[in-house]
Amino acid sequence: MRISRTNLLHPEQGFIHKFWRCQNREFLLKAQSTKDLYMKCTKYALEHRSVNSKVKIYSYCLMDNHAHMQMSYDEDSSYLSSFMRVSHARFGYTFNKIFKRTGKVANERPKTPLIENPEHCMRVHFYIEANPVRANIVSVEGLKLYKYSSYRFFAHGIRDAWTSLLTLPNWYLALGKTKSARQSKYRKLFLKYLSSELFGSKWMYTRYIGNPMWQDQMIGKAKELMDRVLMKSTALNST
Question: pTM above 0.85?
Answer without folding.
Answer: yes
